[in-house]
């Protein structure tokens, strides 16, 4: 679990000692960052907080794990992530400050450090209490969080980017209720002369009788299986923006019922679920909390097994979520 520093620790009261501290005549970027504290360690990266000694502020610093830092493919993906994160300038994406290389030649990038909790932490607390009203949250507030994530994804889709790893762990709710969609490390971007293939009919992605399924060409899964679309499980490259719509629907399912749509994170468990291709509609008896009929219908339209019968664009999902937010008695 990510361990974000508190705002009081990272940002003490401003003083002239900091604001008027002289800047070197010849600033050395290699000596710019200090006082590192690890926030989180992932499969490929380490995220730390540190102090920017040029601007005298605490920021977020991301780098590859030491055992991967010299791998050219990992470096290429990491640099792509930094640039995608920087180029997607939206209120619900995190501001990126700098992309550079360390003294050892390893790439890093820095971002705004936001204080708060992930949606994973919030949902776990709600599940434990069997209530949405935990820590100042409510169902309305959580649906608003999901709507803002939808806005970030809609913006990304319009700019030719598919996230491919939308999950509660990658959604951060800040101290000022800001909502940020994090971690674009698995994002899919097309070349200038390429266009995402989007079949509007019902393509045959995965049949229940298929026993020998090649899972992502036998490569390990990078994303979390429980939130991956059926087509992403089969081939993570052969996806379009509707895969993100499925992932958002899987989060909505968990938000409504306070239980995961797919129980367990193992590949075999998820594959078995995908083979069956049947998702029970969210219902009140699942997590012991009331479930809105309207929100349940939105959810099921997001997580349809075949991409062609899901919502086809994220703005339609947003419209229907916000319809309910305007009038929760819409059911």
What can you see in these coordinates?
There is one protein chain. With 331 residues, the protein is α+β, with helices and mostly antiparallel strands. It folds into two domains: 31-111, Phosphorylase Kinase, domain 1, CATH 3.30.200; 116-330, Transferase(Phosphotransferase) domain 1 (Transferase(Phosphotransferase), domain 1, Orthogonal Bundle). It has helices at residues 7-10, 16-19, 72-87, 119-129, 139-158, 230-234, 242-257, 267-276, 284-287, 293-302, 314-326; strands at 33-41, 45-52, 57-64, 96-101, 107-111, 116-118, 161-162, 171-174, 179-181, 188-189. The strands form three sheets. The chain has a five-stranded antiparallel beta sheet, covered by helices on one side. A hairpin with a 4-residue loop joins strand 2 (45-52) and strand 3 (57-64). The longest helix has 20 residues, at 139-158. Residues 200-220 have low confidence and may be disordered.
């Amino acid at each position: 679990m990510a361990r974000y520093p508190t705002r009081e620790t990272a940002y003490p009261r401003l003083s002239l000692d900091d604001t008027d501290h002289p800047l070197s005549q010849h600033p050395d970027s290699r000596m710019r960052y200090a006082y590192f504290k690890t926030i989180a360690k992932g499969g490929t990266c380490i995220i730390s907080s540190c102090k920017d000694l040029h601007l005298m502020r605490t920021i977020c610093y991301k780098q590859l794990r030491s055992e991967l830092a010299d791998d050219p493919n990992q470096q290429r993906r990491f640099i792509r992530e930094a640039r995608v994160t920087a180029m997607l300038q939206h209120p619900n994406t995190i501001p990126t400050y700098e992309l550079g290389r360390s003294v050892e030649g390893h790439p890093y990038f820095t971002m705004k450090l936001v204080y708060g909790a992930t949606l994973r932490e919030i949902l776990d607390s709600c599940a434990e209490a069997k209530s949405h009203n935990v820590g100042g949250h409510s169902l309305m507030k959580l649906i608003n969080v999901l709507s803002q994530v939808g806005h970030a994804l809609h913006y990304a889709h319009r700019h030719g980017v598919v996230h491919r790893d939308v999950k509660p762990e990658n959604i951060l709710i800040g101290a000022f209720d800001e909502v940020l969609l994090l971690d674009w490390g698995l994002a899919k971007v097309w070349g200038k002369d390429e266009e995402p293939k989007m079949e509007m009919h019902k393509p045959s992605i995965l049949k229940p009788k298929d026993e020998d399924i090649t899972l992502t060409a036998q490569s390990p899964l990078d994303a979390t299986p429980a939130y991956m679309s059926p087509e992403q499980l089969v081939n993570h490259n052969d996806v379009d923006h509707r895969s993100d719509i499925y992932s958002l629907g899987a989060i909505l399912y968990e938000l409504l019922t306070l239980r995961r749509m797919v129980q367990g994170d193992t590949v075999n468990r998820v594959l078995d679920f995908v083979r069956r291709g049947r998702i029970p509609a969210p219902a009140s008896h699942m997590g012991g909390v009331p479930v809105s009929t309207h929100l349940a219908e939105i959810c099921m339209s997001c997580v349809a097994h075949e991409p062609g019968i899901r919502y086809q664009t994220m703005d339609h999902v947003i419209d229907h979520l916000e319809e309910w937010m305007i009038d929760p008695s819409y059911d």
